[in-house]
Write a structure and sequence with these properties.
Elements: H1 2-14, E1 21-24, H2 43-49, E2 55-58, E3 61-64, E4 72-74, E5 77-83, E6 93-97, E7 103-106, E8 116-122, E9 127-130, E10 133-135, E11 148-152, E12 158-160, E13 163-167, E14 170-174, E15 181-183, E16 186-190, E17 206-208, E18 220-223, E19 226-230, E20 235-236, E21 244-247, E22 250-252, E23 269-270, E24 290-292, E25 295-297, E26 302-305, E27 314-316, E28 319-321, E29 325-328, E30 331-332, E31 339-340, E32 346-348, E33 351-353, E34 358-361, E35 369-370
Parallel strand pairs: 1-2, 2-6, 3-7, 5-8, 6-9, 7-10, 8-11, 9-12, 10-13, 11-14, 12-15, 13-16, 14-17, 15-18, 16-19, 17-20, 18-21, 19-22, 20-23, 21-24, 22-25, 23-26, 24-27, 25-28, 26-29, 27-32, 28-33, 29-34, 32-35
Antiparallel strand pairs: 4-5, 30-31
Bound molecules: calcium ion (2 copies).
One calcium ion (CA) is lined by residues 204, 232-233, 236, 265, 270.
């Protein structure tokens, strides 16, 4: 008996606890045990079983979500799936599409009157969600409101290869948390045509608005994402009290319906700002947002927009094409009283072409660190500088690993005078010097 007890004791001490794997499938049942042959039906049910370090595989196919599956009503919100269980450092909880399969969650029949609908409300931390498709999220409120496909309030989460489309909701929205990575996600064809004036003025592809400042709200990064045909902006970080980073992201056709009807604001990247109030809710240190190696094409308004921000941001190696204004650095005066030309911006190695109205506006060159851009270098940008300006390449399928498609769109042609015209700002480059724009 003593030996047996010791054996158990040492087993517990020596062997790490093994992570468990569970399965969710469209033909599953929440009374099942969650094995591959007895899968659960809902992610919510899987969450009730798992612990830190576990993985939930979600099988491919369609999941028609129903009102009965709404996990929680609170205040004006209806959370359909509420992920409030956290992993821990080194023991993430994974909600992953089963390898090679595509689960599609359809919310088009969920219409609780008077509620904002969040398809996934993520308050937990150390969670990794990968490979899910969310479609048809509704709006029922006819006054000011918004619904969301994913809302993040946790930290250290990864959102990867998610597709949020053809609904009335914002694709991804962050208002709390830090150290989150939004990687290789697509948000498209999202238009709230129900609330307010039916123009979808709140429906951004990606919104990042850390509502507090300090250590728990820093280091939120968007990388490799695409946003198109969202009725408001592609990416929006208005009212962000900590800096947000957009890196290697694409934004196009925002502010338009899919037939290019005029809808909401329509900026590619709306980086910062606290509105034009005389008493804005601004943090003591105005964050410098980072927008680098991004591509912005044919948005209704500005490709890259500072949006009355109260300070400068870092705009590095971006490419803008065919926006109304490709680069609009409009700032607000530090005393909140007036809109002024952009100050404090660090603008380097940016490239643009074919703006519909102006290549740039609102740059106070004396108050910015803005050299080595196409608008102040001795270069001439023509269509011949690019291998292709065929916009249909923007929606090409992603690479097998989920990264952005690699094709000729807006890549520099051999012999272009834009090659090697940038300055070394600390990122890798080929040849004698960095090229202008987002593709080296
Ligand atoms: Ca917006
Ligand atoms: Ca180069």
């Amino acid at each position: 008996m003593k030996i047996l007890i010791l054996t158990i004791f040492f087993s517990l001490c020596i062997y790490p606890s093994f992570a468990s794997v569970y399965y969710v499938a469209g033909n599953g049942n929440d009374t099942n045990t969650g094995t591959i042959s007895q899968p659960f039906l809902t992610i919510q049910r899987a969450q009730s079983t798992i612990v830190a370090g576990d993985t939930v595989y979600i099988r491919g196919g369609n999941y028609t979500m129903t009102d009965a599956q709404i996990a929680k009503y609170t205040g004006i919100w209806a959370y359909v799936t509420l992920l409030d269980k956290s992993g821990s450092a080194g023991k993430r909880i994974n909600y992953w599409a089963y390898p090679g399969e595509k689960p599609v969650f359809d919310y088009s029949t969920i219409k609780p009157a008077g509620y904002r609908i969040n398809a996934f409300q993520v308050t937990g931390s150390w969670i990794h969600i990968r490979g899910l498709e969310v479609t048809g999220v509704q709006v029922t409120i006819t006054t000011h409101t918004q619904s969301e496909c994913f809302e993040n309030q946790g930290s250290n989460n990864i959102y990867e290869m998610l597709s949020m489309h053809d609904g009335k909701a914002i694709g991804f929205y962050l208002n709390k948390g830090g150290n989150n990575l939004i990687l290789n996600c697509d948000a498209y064809n999202n238009w709230d045509n129900v609330s307010e004036n039916q123009k979808g003025g709140n429906t951004d592809g990606f919104g990042c608005h850390p509502s507090q400042y300090g250590v728990g709200y820093v280091n939120n990064v968007f990388r490799g994402c695409r946003a198109w045909f969202n009725s408001d902006d592609g990416y929006d970080c208005i009212n962000a009290l900590e800096a947000v980073t957009f890196e290697n992201c694409w934004s196009f056709y925002n502010g338009y319906s899919t037939s290019f009807g005029s809808l909401g604001d329509g900026n590619g990247f709306k980086a910062g700002g606290y509105g034009v109030s005389a008493t804005p809710k601004a943090p003591p240190v105005i964050p410098r947002n980072n927008i680098r190696f991004c591509l912005s094409v044919r948005n209704k308004a500005n490709g890259f927009y500072s949006n009355h921000h109260l300070g400068g941001s870092n705009w590095l190696n971006n490419t803008a094409y065919n926006n109304a204004v490709n680069y609009n650095m409009l700032n607000r005066s530090a005393d909140y009283t007036a809109d002024v030309s952009g100050y404090g911006h660090n603008l380097k190695n940016n490239l643009g072409y074919g703006a519909r109205s102006a290549e740039y506006s609102n740059i106070d060159f004396d108050a910015c660190n803005a050299d080595s851009n196409y608008f102040n270098l001795p270069v001439t940008v023509t269509e011949a500088d690019f291998l292709s300006v065929n916009q249909s390449l923007l929606t090409a399928p992603r690479e097998a690993d989920g990264s952005l498609p690699v094709n000729n769109f807006m890549r520099l042609a051999p012999g272009s005078d834009l090659l090697d015209k940038g300055m070394d700002i600390g990122y890798p480059f080929k040849g004698a010097a960095p090229d202008l724009g987002c593709f080296e």
